[in-house]
């Protein structure tokens, strides 16, 4: 029954030219005959991506498999049939890395995937931000997107592939969604744009940019880490990425046209009573305008004034209209009117609620070197956003180790610089849990880390842990972490290439019928407040130095943003971060050159090969003793040198004294090359005998090949016993291993040297 149906579909495709071939989108005829619909996206780099459906997980509302190279991801979309009680979209995106997809076994005790890793959380957020803006406004059905890694080739990162597969799964499902979207990764190699670079290309790229866009070149999401990329190159990369995304969109549209399900009807809530709406507006509009025009308000007083007004309006309506008034409905109406008035006043007055114009920054103040025990510290205050940053320098052993799949996809085994972001509930005058970092904290910390990673030297001898604790929050705390983190790094003496700063750009726009391509009007807001983020259409965060850009994250809340607005936002952010760096430079413009007493130090120590045993001690006991007594870590760099890490100069001096004792605890007699010595056997081994020339020297091996002119398989064949004394000839030390080279065999031929039986007292 299935074969004739697929033949009919293929005949239908052949009868329509724009289905079989559409630009660079190609539909494979052989896959239709096998019952697996497939389309290929031919990017400009000649690395096609395949999208298939209909083979796996057919109980799901939608399922698609995307494959690039040998990396394949299956994504399913499932949504409940009845709406939930919450007044927002309950969307959950679960991306899980699986060792089996790479042919590996997890290394934990249970040998299975356990808790969610940071990489999985960040990728889930990346996918969520690419999909969420395109759901209908009244869609409050519980929806889950699950990304299942089928295979990972360690060449292509699955994150961008997952976005495309999720877009296809939602488009093919009956879930209402205004997609599709396409996503590509953009690299920059020798100032040339590379689409979907491989892992090796990405390690040499100065840019790692993920672009998600929909039809008509509307941008939905941006995420980037860069090595101080210039603004024109960054703009070029975004334009190239948006152009390539259109190929993915067209491919998904082709698949959806013939294999997509009819979108389900959703329950649209009845509009509130017009009289109630008019009453709420009449009671609140003028007073809301007064609140938003009172520039003396801060975050707390403004929130209290709006909350008191909301309570007053609900009480008046209940008094006038009786108990028939539903408080939750009135609350929702009030919130919509509040948002409408807040946005309209920006267009009317060209002044924001705190009195600033569109391009003004909030007041900024900075402090460094706050507490002496800290290696580096800074307090950055921007308006009512306050961030306390600290830097801790430690040994290379403290570097962050990555899990197996993250190593395969990123190419890094460990990180010697990482930023931890903390957002306690008291920062917004709330009560909440204290525990492991949540998804929001991990996402903000990763963004701030990207903003600073480019300026931190890659060959720095210490592991750097930068912590950013938000003490007050009124918008843009992640970008404040970049500013405070830059100051803390300089205070800790880290030779960063240049100071870095971050700023958040907002947007308020007017458009009709979800047509964001033809905006009637818009205002771009520099350095947004928390309320402007909540009421606005965009949270566009950018970090960088005066020269270029180091990180970007654009969270767009409307269904797509024109490229014109994106480019204008980049210009506004570039100007703002330069002004912020000028203010920061008044406090500290470069890293400290005069060392603090508590700064850690490192030294390189050369140890001759023949002294390694004394230096290390039995089983490395000397190194363990140094670590416990002085806190000093010693790591071997090569065959002859070791790197000593000490928490301070005093510990280094103490450790060097102990090392001197290890190496000179006993006087080792000097041996003469070619001389003959009387050696005492202390141990018989299968490969030879262990002998000592002097009681103060460590035992040395006399190999079977040097015991006798005849072939010897075991020393017992010659009648040798422990405690027996034999004559051996000394031929110096091996230049690589440092072991003594001894021979008894050469003494069985005519003597060529004077026999020496020296006493160490001589």
TrEMBL record:
Keywords: Nucleotidyltransferase, RNA-binding, Transferase. This is polyribonucleotide nucleotidyltransferase. It comes from Gryllus longicercus. It holds the Pfam family RNase_PH. GO terms for cellular component: cytosol; mitochondrion. InterPro entries: ExoRNase_PH_dom1, ExoRNase_PH_dom2, ExoRNase_PH_dom2_sf, KH_dom_type_1_sf, NA-bd_OB-fold, PNPase, PNPase/RNase_PH_dom_sf, PNPase_PH_RNA-bd_bac/org-type. One of its GO terms (biological process) is mitochondrial RNA 3'-end processing. Gene3D superfamilies: GHMP Kinase, N-terminal domain (3.30.230.70), K Homology domain, type 1 (3.30.1370.10), Nucleic acid-binding proteins (2.40.50.140). It is an enzyme of class 2 (transferase). Coiled coil: none annotated. Its EC number is 2.7.7.8. Belongs to the polyribonucleotide nucleotidyltransferase family. Residues 674-745 form the S1 motif domain. The keyword Lyase does not apply. One of its GO terms (molecular function) is polyribonucleotide nucleotidyltransferase activity. NCBIfam families: polynuc_phos, PRK11824.1.
